[in-house]
Amino acid sequence: MKAGIIGGAGYTAGELTRLLINHPEVEIGFIHSTSHAGQPVSAVHEGLLGDTDLCFAADFDLNAVDVLFLCQGHGKSTQFWAEHPLPDTLRVIDLAQDFRDESAGYVYGLPELQRQRISGARLVANPGCFATALQLSMLPLAAAGMLPDRISVSGVTGSTGAGVKPGSTTHFSWRSDNLSVYKPFNHQHLAEICRSLKGLQNGWDGVIDFVPVRGNFARGIYAMTWIHTDMTEEAARRLYTDFYATAPFTIVAPGEVDLKQAVNTNKAVIGITATEGRLLVTCAIDNLLKGASGQAVQNMNIMAGFDETAGLRLKPSAF
Question: Domains of the chain, with CATH numbers?
Answer without folding.
Answer: 2-126+292-304 (3.40.50.720), 129-285 (3.30.360.10)
